[in-house]
Write a structure and sequence with these properties.
The structure is a single chain. The chain has one domain. It contains eleven helices and two strands, in the order H-H-H-H-H-H-H-H-E-H-H-E-H. The two termini are about 35 Å apart.
Length: about 260
Amino acid sequence: MDQASRRQATQTLAELERLRRRTRTRTHGGAWLPALGIAVLLLASCALYDRPFASTNSVSADSPFWAGLPDQQRSPLASYLFWFLGTPLLFAAVAAWYHWRSRALGLRVAWRPFVGTGLGVLLLLAVLAAVPRQEQRLADTLVTNPDYFWLAGLLTPLLPIAAAVVALGWAERSWGLLVAGGWIAALTVWLCGWFPMGYLPGWAIDLLAGDLGAVLGGTSGSFGGRFDWRPGFWLVLMALPLITFAAVRGWQSWRAADDG
């Protein structure tokens, strides 16, 4: 093969690679809207709490945590309706968005696992919350029944949202969304798994202080601590990766469309 032929082959391969990247960007460029929609839903849930950002001297929270986090809510019914109506409506809007993109661009994304996972976990939450049990105040549950306390900590509508984001990351082949979903899940399990919200056990304090020997040896002298943040701040922290992803992916999609 002479030099001109090699140069032509190199240019052809480069053009094919450019087209492949452009097609991939256009195919997954619509992920910014569901990510932004979920972030808006998380931020809107701040309104479900009595004092989402203002400090308070006492916290009252009963399980299940229909508002999302273990804090005093304005109305359990309003919280229940917010998540059990708002989440399916959001998923319906996302399905319509992907259907429109498929018809307009001829590019399809496997969005159904995203909707199915979110609705499935939401339905499971409703079933678990409906199981008859003896009513207990959350503050007493920690002492009287630690096993039930952990179950109560998982009965939150934030976990279906986290599961849906992970499924969306799989559908969109996006590590950013997978990490965002894991981030929401980790924060939710931690914040709802201990009371009061934001509690850090002694070993976690030692780990943050760099005392790895105390952690491994089980000789922690710390009684633990707590991040005294209100639920609004935690919800902003959950939504931040989604907002960042939506901004970056939206810009990339706009650039791809502009280049086309």
